[in-house]
Specification:
Elements lengths: L1 E2 L8 H7 L14 H18 L16 H10 L1 E8 L2 E8 L2 H14 L5 H16 L6 E4 L4 H7 L3 H6 L9 E2 L4 E3 L11 H8 L3 E3 L8 E9 L3 H12 L3 E10 L7
Parallel strand pairs: 3-9, 4-5, 4-8, 8-9
Antiparallel strand pairs: 1-5, 2-3, 6-7
Bound molecules: zinc ion (ZN).
Length: about 260
Amino acid sequence: MLNCGHDGAMTENSRQERLGGLSPIRSGAGGTGWLKAALQNVRRGWSDLVFPAWCPVCAMPARGVCGACTARIAADGLVVEHVSVQGFDIPVYSSAQPEACRRVVSAFKDAEHFEVVSVLAAVLEDGITRAVGRHSAARIVPIPTTSRAFRRRGYWPLKHILIRCRFPVGVSIGLGSLEWVRPTHDQRGLDVRQRRENLEGALVCADRGIAGVPVVLVDDVVTTGATVRTAVAALLDAGASICGVAAISHVRQHAAD
Ligand SMILES: [Zn+2]
């Protein structure tokens, strides 16, 4: 668990230290690091072909999200919806520009455009603040990356967005509170029953001290909500009190629910 200190804000140095693994240059330190750095630069070059210097939202020439799209995402703020898990009505806070934010998340996760992270962090920060509400001792719990996704990317995207956020006074972060305990298949293309079976019992809460703690679950993109429901159920089983869910984008896929 990571305590956030008095005001929850991290210094730029500590952020850079934590984000060091994101830099193709800095990741090259030591051992075979030069090879990793070279491969990352090749991969980044390829991603620039896929996502060239255009805004990932409006496709106008820009380095990262353009000013107009950044302003629109910020101005439109959040929407709140609810999911029901084990009889509890859980509020889900996410951007009022879900498709725009989904594109930005994709640019970050799939094309390694790390310069967009501040836009994502701003949305997530707002959602977390709303979900925390008056629960000053709340714990922020992100849905962990799967080992398959970690092997593919080499880092945990949501963690790198989360550590750019400032948090309300007194909250803590439980980066290791949830754990995948068995491999799962890619959810895309699975029907309702298959998604449920794929995720059932796959996430557990490893945080022994979470009973009675108000928790804000965090995810980047929510689609059918199957992963969120599985995570909330694992946290409830461990005795946590769920304040809400903060997501960057909720792109609804009702057909698979
Ligand atoms: Zn734009």
